Amino acid sequence: MRVIVSGLRKTYRGGVHALNGVTLDIPSGMFGLLGPNGAGKTTLMRILAGILRPSGGSVQVGAFDALSGKGQLAVKRLLGYLPQELGVYPDLSAREFLDYIALLKGLDDRQARRQRVDTLLELVALSDVASRKLKTYSGGMKRRVGIAQALLNDPQLLIVDEPTAGLDPEERIRFRNLLADLGGNRVVILSTHIVEDVAQTCQRVAIMKSGRVLFQGTVGQLTQATRGHVWTLTTPHVSMRPQGDLAVVSTIQTGAGAQFRVVGDMAPQAGARLVEPTLEDSYVWFMRER
Amino acid sequence: MERIWYELRVMRLWTLAVPVVIVAGMTLATIAIRLFTAHGDHHTLAQLMTATIEMLLPLGAAVVVASLTTSDQAMELRLTLPQPFALTALLRAALVIAASGAVAIVAGVFLYHWKFWRIPAQADYSGVAPQFLELQLTWLAPLLVLAALGFALAALLRNGALSGAVVGVVWLIESFAYGYFVVYAWLNPLFLFPTTLAPSVSFWLSSRLELIALALVLFLLGWLPLRRGESLIRSADAASE
After folding, report:
1. Of A244, B133, B226, B239, which is most buried with the most CB atoms under 10 A?
2. Are residues A249 and A159 in the same domain?
């Protein structure tokens, strides 16, 4: 299974260019799509999910042309999708919600459907509260219901859009671990602006900005591309910030002064020490460069 | 059946109570008029009760259909599922129409039995069963047309409240300017409420059938834009902002 996106363009009414010739090659496994808000990630996800029609380009999902009528239907059958804002029916319980979505996904056999729902409730650790109405659920619990519904049809293509936004650290870690377990033979596309989520779960990554892909490759290749551009330096006072064409990634106040972590083309000043880049450094580097 | 049960739950069950509330409210009002006012003659009361099933039930159903057609709390997710949302919207409209129809039939039995149903000139013949069956066109035609209008408007405008308001304006025009629909031949097929307002018209039956055909066209008109996920997601995004 492979998703191949070629020259994808999307222009909304009013001339807003959300995607400007996006080309991606996404193999099986976890694939992180990083970018700031407004980069075009959600538009890309919605096109892949068959909600939006692109203005140009092509999308191939496995053997199917995802933009043709027939192909789109075939892709929907093998798709699991967790939108950024998962709306739920507040008066249904989690079990009823999953059963209803399973019906809509074509799982007609009642016995098999109930069994699948119970298995997934177990997987997302909601079995104990499965009969409670969804309006009583916290944000994290709703996300877990969301991932359960996305898995109902055992999808070959799983798309999750900003799944950890707004979750507390514990819920975020739990969710990340859940996602990491789902990679395997399916394509899992994780769209997010939270670098740590990608760092912890994905083998491959793409960075988007203003509707374009700035980078795509493995996480190792991404950090490799930034090697030689990340520095730490200590200044006697926190107000003495590093000068020049640099982006400050982090600032740690020490007793006597401050330690800055910066990315830039040249050594910022004497005493600066070259360090190994992290994914976050690389992300800042790409955002700053282009 | 499971699917229908879930759709009713998602639509909220109170939507099905609307026709019951309308008929119960109008029945109480009619009883009050009979008991406490000087206008309680049989003709007036029959007109009121006929208006209940011919005019008010269809209006209530149309407003509910308009509000349901393009709104779904899980719209983005729904648009990624193999089953088209247009089919779901149509199913929900059918459930609303069925609920109103069921209430109209039950109410109609009592109205017919106690002679509170105004009989149009064209259906004024002996033979209880065929007459009762033909009289069902009284509520069926306006119910289908107004519900279809609410469906099509909501699909085109992607705004349930606005669509409901437009249906309300059409209803008002039909109710208060009905003379035009009687006098002008080209407006005859569009006359929604002849049983209540002008039962002696000679085109009662033909206009009922023409209205049912019009309803089918309106449903088709609404079906087409509902197949486009892009417009639905835009309105869902706008609603959530």
Report:
1. B226
2. no
